[in-house]
Structures are given as C-alpha cells and as structure tokens.
Amino acid sequence: MSAPATAPIRELPRTARPQSVLFMCGQNCVRSPMAAALARHLFGRSLYVGSAGVMKGEVDPFVAATLDEIGLDNRRHRPQTLEELEENEGLAFDLVITLSPDAHHRAIELTRTNAIDIEYWPTADPTLVSGNREQRLDAYRAVRDELEMRIRTRFRA
Known about the structure:
Layout: E1 20-27, H1 31-43, E2 48-55, H2 61-68, H3 82-89, E3 95-98, H4 101-110, E4 117-120, H5 133-155
C-alpha cells in the first residue's frame, strides 16, 4: 500500500485577501504576537487574526514596550502552541504566515490534513541580540517595523 499523497502547498495570489490569517513562529512570544497585534490594529474585524508557536514561550516585556511605543497594547497576550490554539479555537484559517524555519516546517505538516495556504516570511529573532537595553529594543523595533511594512504590503493597508 502506498503512502498517502501530501497536499501541495498553495500560495494565494498576492491580490487575494484572505478572511483569516495565523502568524506562527518558534515560540509564541515575540514575532507572531507582534505580527498579530499589528494586523489586528490595521484591519480590525475585517480580518480574523491568530498567533501560535511551535513551542510555548514566555511573555517578553520588550514586545509590550515596542508595541506600546506605537500605541498598541499587547499585555493580554498569553503564549500558546499550535496544538493549544487548535483545541481552543480550531484551525479555521485561510492563510498561515510563518516567521521562522521551525514554524514553517510545522505549518507544512498542517497541509497534509487541512486546506491551508502558507507563506514564509523569514524574520530575524530579536532575542538573539545582546547589548544594553536600548540596543535590544532597537532590534525589536526593527522587527516590528519590518512586520508592519510586510503586513501593509501583503494585505494592502
């Protein structure tokens, strides 16, 4: 008996705007919650937005600080894994945007059993930057600004 075929990864045409998007990274504590907060701010209720990680991380205070600088409050965010998200909300997303290699590999596994489109946006991990507080905040600001630009471009805000 042959192995079941895997569903091909479909990419939405860049002009198509999905109804729902899930941002995923390695841990749901920096990049994916930052992207989700930005997308929610930019699109309100016109786009359903979620975030999850391959693993569950710890809340990162630099994320709250850099989002607060632009008037966004992310203090209610609690990191969750993809499995926790699936248990609580299901995986009814049109598009998964992965921000790290491990999240991308995990998302590809989802296409075996779900009709989900995937886009990979390689995004630097600001937690790897060392230095004083301001240098570290600058790394988070750079990620925030890059994500905002990519979200605006992709979803035409």
